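Please predict the structure of the following assembly.
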Amino acid sequence: MENLTQLIFKRCLASVATLFVISIIIFIGVELLPGDVAQAVLGQQATPETVDAFRKELKLDLPPMVRYGAWLKGVAHGDFGNSLANGRPVADQIGWRLGNTLFLALLTSAIAVPLAICLGMLAAFYRNTLFDRCISISTLSFISFPEFFIAYILILVFSIQLNWLPSLAAVNENMGLGTRIYTVLLPAMTLTCVVTAHMMRQTRAAIINVLASAYIEMAQIKGIKRLRIIVLHAFPNSLSPVINVVALNMAYLIVGVVIVEVVFVYPGLGQLLVDSVAKRDLPVVQASGLIFSVVYILLNLIADILSMLSNPKLRQSRI
Amino acid sequence: MFKLIKQSPVSARIGMLIVGLNLAVALFAPLIAPYEETGVVGDVWETSSSAFLLGTDHIGRDLFTRMVYGARNTIALSFTITGLSFFMGVFMGFVAAVKKGWVDQGISRVVDIIMAFPTLIFALMVLSIMGPSVPTLIFTIAILDSTRVFRLSRAVAMDIEVLEFVEAARLRGEGLWWIIRHEILPNAMPPLMAEFGLRFCFVFLFIAALSFLGLGLQPPLADWGGMVRENAGAINFGILIPLIPAAAIAVLTVGVNLIVDWFLHLSSGLHE
Amino acid sequence: MSNLLKIRNLHIEGFYENQWQPIVKNVSLELKRGEVLGLIGESGAGKSTIGLAAMGYTRQGCRLASGSIDLEGTELFGASDEDLRLIRGSKVAYVAQSAAASFNPSHRVIRQYAEAPVHHGLKSYKEAEEEAVELYRRLFLPTPEKIGYRFPHELSGGQLQRAMVAMAMSCEPDIIVFDEPTTALDVTTQIEVLAAVKEITEKMNKAALYITHDLAVVAQVAHRIMVLRNGKMVEEGETRRLIKNPKEKYTRDLLNVRKSMDNHEIDPSSDVILNINNVAATYTGHDNVIEDIDLKVQRGQTVALVGESGSGKSTLARVITGLLPRTTGDISFLGQSLSTTLKQRKKDDLRRLQMIYQMPDTALNPRHTVRKVIGRPLKFYFGLKGKAAELRIRELLEKIELNPDAYIDRLTTELSGGEKQRICIARALAAEPELIICDEVTSALDQLVAEGILNLLQDLQNKTDVSYLFITHDLATVKAIADKIVIMLQGKIVEQGEKKKVLSPPHHTYTDKLLASVPKMDPDWLDTLLEERASTYL
């Protein structure tokens, strides 16, 4: 059997390979534009001179391999080229927006992960009771609701009816941590609702799966107390599936974040991406798409490594 | 079939009622709707009245009419995409599971790559390059979605494929198609049916999200996600109009999910 | 002596098909200190349910309906959860069938041993640890000082099973419930576990309920035996009395299993239909799983391929069928060399070589009807359709002793295990084969049902002169039906020949061990064997 370090190493290699392929796809995507990119973006009215200049700007006059190399080299140095919309370097626009998005995602996971795991465990231990049923119906609803529906309901209740929280998450660079949290609380709550529902359902399923195993029955037959069975027998073995669930849903956050940022006009990477798609500002789309993909792949990688580490059979073979 | 519905729990019946109602509205949209789909007939954001059942939208179109046509457009689009994605996903999943070897490896690696992108990001990038037309929308989402269908149908088919009755068919000398059609497909139906419901919900919400971002169905076509976006400003005046299409999306998704839950319970919970 | 456990008129119900249905009906039993009671029966007899009820436990979806379970004056029926918890593990302990699943993969074996006594407040961890080592030694586990500090997946099946027997002893309970502790093990490993059970019940004088479907096994350890069927008691009696002189027909049937086969003679000059010559195969590309295989099957002959798990016998079957390409050697079938892979084989070669599987549940497509299962090979190989196919299907159903009118339109899921296996036989026969590979065809079936299948196979052979390659780990089956025996160990054939020759001494050492390990109905068999082994090892 392969040992743990080898497995992890292999998994990391796979991630690097995926990243590489993805960078090629993102790059080629722009190549595949029907007709001439420059012509398509600038429209029919553009003069040949402007089209030519634009082609130079996009370095379309060089062969693809060379351009890919140059692009990748730039990306590695944090240079994503210039925006087509305003000519400013893409990296400048992305920097603090990425920070904002990560802040929102972190805040959400700080609320959602403990909440989801607790609720999921409770639902599993008290399965088929009224409590479980209530939880299962409400999570089913939250899964079914589009993010913006939850967002508008929260806005309606907390900012319009109660007037407690701002409906626009307008953050700026000079805000203190407290104000910042206060400002993004509504978007964070929206995301929490969505993510918790998914995470909780899967946590419940994972734990029920463990509780059905023969060694749990054996522990009961040995006369072990319920609490001890849960803590000592069920928990260590549920760790691996639960970690997987958590990480998978963190990845799901990325999708949710885009929509929530748009609803609350939050200056994050998601909103930038959506704006740029509408404007067909390709360098920005390329850059933010790449960043989102990298984060996503990293999250999946962390999930896999953590669940390898928490898998008792793999963990023990280290010795 | 009728016997099965008779035994269904209340939740599944509510689900069926919701889905049935929505389908009826979608099918008979022109008969139900009082006005033209894109006709401007009143003032901006009028409240509900006998003339305008749900009031009017941000440029004075009848909201009820827009809702009815929105049901038609959104449901038809989601259904087409889910169907297409299923056709591709199941087909490739089964072939990969039965053929194994390099065929399986090849398809699986491509799927891995596509799945390594967050779906929404991938769709946004494709739409930014190709532009938001309906065919682009259909193919992009269907391909993205078919990767999940592929994973599931491959896994299901793998589980069935190792059973001896498939080996017996192989030993008999049966071909690939016979094995897929007669041995695997009938046994894969229950999980695939449930998955169809789940995928429909996903696609439906996904289109709603894209439309909400202004990248789905383009105006003046009525579409629930887009209607939320167009009327979003109203919420700040305490007008509930954007919540109506949003709630419609939520209700239909809950309905489908209720049926799916019952289905999952039926196919897995029998021996519990 | 007073009764330790007294179960009176016990009824247990299970919830299925949306209602409570009886599983155990009016069973009473008594167990004295130091006594072992064997509970025996086929699947669905309710023996495990009774075993668990002895500790006031029922599986999910089951409930104690009525009756009384008296454990040394304490009534367990209707006792509070906390009272029951105090009894479980400390007064009554349980040894499950699958040790691999019953040990928590996250904790070391010895920690799981010590958990119950420490938790019940009977011993300190240190004391439990020392006792564990001592018990491991008594139960013949290798390196008893160290083995407990391993994780469950680092032990073999037989070792784990003995570690679980030790774990059940950890609180020094009054009663131990053994629930098929050897069923999942090979015969040679079974001996080790049986010896451990014997050590505990006899030398340490513990009372036990021993649950099994194998009369020969239970005869070795039990003082008394209770025969159960469909949740009811058939008869009960002292072991020797019951074996020698059973009162009920059902018990007699169980005892007579696999004794009654007639040995049909085959003509030694009949033609060889399958000739395997120096064949080897591998899954990985290196390390052969099977090697140097030479084997002949004659027309109308039953060749039994015997070996324990991992011996390569099923791999050999895969090589013959072409599912796994051979790397060297040749297989000729009816005088012509068979292609290495399935794909290159001619349709007629496929037709002449049929296979029947171990698990009739998974060997039949649950969505097909009997008509489709049997009809498909008829259409595929002979192009039979419509009326002609219908007639042939009915004829085949009659051959396998099932009423065509009652069965032809049933879904395969609506059949019992034995009926399913018969349909599998019919499917093989439909192809009119020359050779049928039978892969453990009886091991998933209850004994009496298995007996019926074996008789049917024998009958069919007498009528059609078909040959069987019979893969099995069960020597009793081999003795009953084989003409020729081939014994495999670690991918190689260690001995082969006519049945009489192989079964009578002198044997190859492994054959000897294998034959000696098969439990005999004689209650003294295990003791004698253990004594013999002790004296040879000393």
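Residues 3-259 of chain C form a domain with the Rossmann fold fold (CATH 3.40.50.300). Chain C has a mean pLDDT of 88.
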